[in-house]
Amino acid sequence: MADVILKDIRKTFGVLDVIKGVDLDIKSGEFVVFVGPSGCGKSTLLRMIAGLEDITSGTLEIGGQVMNDVDPSKRGIAMVFQSYALYPHMTVRENMGFALRFAGQDKAEIARRVDAAAKILELGPLMDRKPKALSGGQRQRVAIGRAIVREPDVFLFDEPLSNLDAELRVHMRVEIARLHKELNATIVYVTHDQVEAMTLADKIVVLRAGIVEQVGAPLDLYDDPANLFVAGFIGSPRMNVFAGRVIGASGTSALVSLDGFADKEIAVPLQGPVPSAGTPIRLGIRPEHFTDAGEDSLSITIDMFEHLGGETFAYGRSTSGETIVVTTRNGRSLSTGHVLKAGFDPTRALLFAEDGKRIR
Amino acid sequence: MTAISTSRAVPASRASRVLPRAATYVALSVAAFVSVFPFIWMMISSTNTSIDIIKGKATFGRAFSNNVANFFAQVDVPLVFWNSAKVAILATLLTIAVSSLAGYGFEMFRSKMRDRIYSLVLLTLMVPFAALMIPLFMMMGKAGLINTHIAILLPTVASAFIIFYFRQATKAFPTELRDAAKVDGLKEWQIFLYIYVPVMRSTYAAAFVIVFMMNWNNYLWPLIVLQSNDTKTITLVVSSLASAYYPDFGVVMIGTILATLPTLLVFFVMQRQFVAGMLGSVK
Lengths: 360, 283
Fold this sequence. Notes:
- Chain A is α+β, with helices and mostly antiparallel strands and 360 residues long.
- Chain A has eight helices and 21 strands.
- In chain A, the strands form four sheets. Chain A has a six-stranded mixed sheet, sandwiched between helices. A six-stranded antiparallel sheet of chain A has the order 13-12-11-14-20-21. Chain A has a five-stranded antiparallel sheet with strand order 15-19-16-17-18, with no helix packed on it.
- In chain A, helix 2 (92-102) crosses helix 3 and helix 2 (92-102) packs parallel to helix 4 (136-148).
- Classes of the chains: A alpha+beta (360), B mainly alpha (283).
- Chain A binds chain B through residues 47, 50-52, 71-74, 77-79, 81-83, 85-89, 98-99, 102-103, 132, and chain B through 174, 176-177, 179-186, 190, 195, 198-199, 201, 282-283.
């Protein structure tokens, strides 16, 4: 186990800035997930930690040692790839022991470590098979096993569950979480799937266009996003965002009127100063924060449903045409064209400035 | 009325399915016959006397053993086959080693000059060998390599076509395997040797068949640089038999059959890998 510290890490490809100065402190034993949309630089950042991409500037420390120019095999890392990257001409046992064999470990030690990893991952019956004779989930377990036998300080996972079907993904997610507990290892994990991020991470790093937008515990990011991007990215379905403006103050609350709901005046409690009247704002309300009851409510005409069994996502629009998603447990009683009074608690609504920054 | 129109429609649709297929089989049969006929004619002719062959006899005769005996009497068969095998195998191995390294390098390493250099390599495919013969001969002469097998090997070692073939095949090689190998501690040459070569073995097999055939059948360049009988390959020897003042075509046919056997053997032994290699190595 080791800390991983990134100080002003940058990466450029020619004239293109891909990573624009990332500072990050990953504690020993922590499970950190890099999350963000495609092309945000999360995989590049992981590959820079692995040593598979050069660091243009900045400092990378693993276990207190600067690793910028250290060979990938000497960084104390092991990596699990999206496509598993198992050597197709080797058996499972050979795949798992390959790095140790190359590092000059004696055969008995290789066998001990490989067998131990196989036991953890229940790979025993598969050890003499070649990768093409394995299912996707089995290949993924072998890839994880190959990482485990190296006994690395840091595990790096690059979208390891992307190629699995939905059921297997859930199963492997649980396996990885169990593995983290068992090994108590430092894990850096890249995904674009926010459910994986929310369920696995001790700490989530939200990236956009090579910049860290916010770092924090999953629920902190969910409850207290730093900006509209994080608010929209964390949580499914996405947070509803309404344009409006401040029309006054009531104590520590900002009185807000929404463009799509002209008749509404919503008091949003703030910790800091209330913006001056007339300031354009964005009000964010998560779909699951709409309730039947609620201090305030919005009238929504329902256009479409997504029934998930236990709950329903109802897609509707305001009188001015703004799209709104509401999560409800009473979806069976709704119908298209139905006008829904979606109540909400204004203390759960989040206020953002026009540039997307959070107003707290 | 309805019943009649239905009964007419069925045979019409069957005919529309059968006729194109029949036409395809006829075309394929003609192509197969045209391809195989020279080989059959060679086999038949090897059993006939030279006079019968000239007369155009197209049935099996009784001169086979006599032709074989004459061939072995006129040709130092072990030496000629040794020369051919040595040249073909060494040239094939060297060509594949150099060209696969080049193909791997062109695909794996990014550089501003990469595509320009690669275009130059491909441009060499446009230069006919006739334009290269004299400069090559002069170079070999200056290097004192005329009448040596090295003179045959050197010009074939870097083949633009095989470099192209390996680069195209390398596009299917997963880059994550290379990354995984780097994390496992392998240097670039080790990745090439321990990961790339085994993973791409079908590509290598297909390249081996192609390059071996090219080298075994190589005629023009060996004809120019090999001048003594000690160094001549089977193609040159058969050719010299055919161009004698009174050629014995029965003997020539025996030589041609023997010259064909190794390439057939290589193809049949590596047939499965050859097909896999042509379709793409990585599964």
